[in-house]
Each structure stands twice: as structure tokens, then as C-alpha cells.
């Protein structure tokens, strides 16, 4: 009986390696022309190209690794610009949000990601809000200034408030940058929860078969709320929602 889990594990590892190769290939194929031509092409066009990259990889995850997804709360997606605050457990949500949300968006990320060959070069074309985490005050000010600038131009702002990937079943301090931006710019906050870390674990090459559940919450109107209150409501909803989703006992 001990040979069955072993074979399953080996197949999971093999499929995960195949997907990693596929992912690397798509990064090069999409990022190389974007990094060269993206500066002169319309932003709407390169945004749709980025969205297509995300959809291709979601398809590949299902086909190669048997990892699909299910979205709850699609009716909560607003028709107007908003600030997305999402749980960060794995690389899955960075692919999924690019694929599933409106294409014209701006991401808040650590500055070091721009140094990654091909991937980082393409990221720079999308003009993210790149944060230097060694200077918190300057980073917050940059987020507030550039975030409002892009919101006013119709782009969604996507933020992982915990600032880094967190192992499934755990939680980390939620930074107030996103809630401060919402309060200052007066744009709604869209909370998103998911259990991707169950299937694509932090610092693990394996992508386990199954179905990620992504839940889109109701937009939160920041009017009359302090950044602390906005942050508290978003954190409570995300963590309570995740607690109801299938967890670590799957594997």
C-alpha cells in the first residue's frame, strides 16, 4: 500500500516541473516583446496581452497539473475603479488576478521584482508601484501619490496587504497602505480571499491537483471610515472567509 502515495507524489512532482517549464517559456515569449515594444504600444493593448498570459497559465495549470479554480462572488465585481486587497499565499493569485480582473490595473510590489530578467523587464512596462521596503515612510507616500494618480486614470490598484506570501493556515500583519489609499482617494475597497496555498504551497515546487476557491467580497465604501477601521473590516472578512474554505487537511 505504501507504493500508491509514492507514485502519486512522483507524478505530482513531474507535472509540476513540466508546468514550471511551461511557465518559464510563456514568461519569455510574452515578456520579451512587451519589454521592447510595450513602451510605445497603447496601454490597453499590452494590458490585454498580460491578461491573456494569465489565462493561458490558468489553462495550463488545469491541463498539466489538474489544478482548476472556482470563483464565488463574481457579482460583487464593481463596474468602476477600485482598490483590491487580496490574501497572498502563493504565485497562483498573481496569475489568477491578472487573468480574472479587468486588464487595466496597477500592482503594488516590492522593487526587487523589477530586477528579474524578462519578467521584471515586462513588469516595468506596466508601471507598477514598486515599493522599497527599507524606507516605509517614502513607500507609503509613493503608494498614496501614485495610487491616486492611477485610480483617477481608471486603473484598478492591486495590493497584497500582508506584503509577502503567507503559508496556508497562517496570517500576518495587514499593512495599512491600501486602506490609507482608499481613505485618501475615496475609492472602494474590494476584498478577495482564496485557498491557493493549499494546492500551491509557499516555497514548494509541487502544484497539487484540485480546485482553488477564490471568493470576491462586497466592495467596501471608505466614506467616513478611518484607515484602521477599513483595514480591520477587510482583514476580518478575508480571514473569516478563508477559515471556511477547504484547508491543509487536503494533502
List keywords for this structure.
single chain, 251 residues, alpha/beta, Glycerol-3-phosphate (1)-acyltransferase, 7-stranded mixed β-sheet, 7 strands, 48% helix, disordered N terminus
Strand proportion, as a percent range, falls in 5-15%
- Sheet with most strands: strand arrangement: 1-7-6-2-5-3-4
Shape: globular
CATH hierarchy class name: Alpha Beta
**How many DSSP-defined strands?**
7
Described by strand count, sense and barrel closure, the largest sheet is: 7 strands, mixed
User: How widely separated are the two ends?
Assistant: 17 Å
Specify the number of helices.
8
The CATH architecture can be given as: 3-Layer(aba) Sandwich
What is the CATH topology? Glycerol-3-phosphate (1)-acyltransferase
Which whole number gives the mean pLDDT? 93
Percent of residues in helices comes to 40-55%
C-alpha Rg (nearest Å): 18 Å
N-to-C order of helices and strands: HHEEHEHEHEHEHEH
Structural class: alpha/beta
Q: Spans with pLDDT under 50 lasting ≥5 residues?
A: 1-6
Give the number of domains. Answer: 1
Can you tell me about this structure?
The chain has 251 residues and is an alpha/beta fold. It has one domain: Glycerol-3-phosphate (1)-acyltransferase. The protein is 48% helix and 14% strand. It has eight helices and seven strands, in the order ααββαβαβαβαβαβα. It has helices at 3-37, 43-65, 92-100, 119-125, 136-152, 177-185, 196-199, 227-243, and strands spanning 67-72, 83-86, 105-110, 129-131, 156-159, 189-194, 210-216. Strands 1-7-6-2-5-3-4 form a seven-stranded mixed sheet, sandwiched between helices. α2 crosses α3 (92-100) and α5 (136-152) crosses α6. The radius of gyration is 18 Å and the shape is globular.
